[in-house]
Specification:
This protein is mainly α and 68 residues long. It is built from three helices and no strands.
């Protein structure tokens, strides 16, 4: 269990969103956290790949290699 403190503007926006959609504020906080964690994991994975000294291909090179 975690608790967070929102600034008044965040709290008001979250209140409006929950009221307008009939979903709970917790639903939106969990959704936002899930998306952030997924994006962060993707970023860290991409960073690790870039730090390795391996051949990289542009999108055009990949298309050519695949015959697209």
């Amino acid at each position: 269990m975690a608790s967070v403190r929102l600034n008044p503007a965040q709290e008001a926006a979250l209140d409006r969103l929950a009221a307008e959609t009939g979903r709970t504020k917790s639903y939106y906080v969990k959704e936002a956290l899930d998306r952030y964690l997924e994006d962060r994991a993707d970023y860290l994975l991409a960073l690790a790949v870039l730090e390795r000294d391996e051949r990289r291909l542009s999108a055009d090179e990949v298309r050519r290699e695949l015959g697209l």
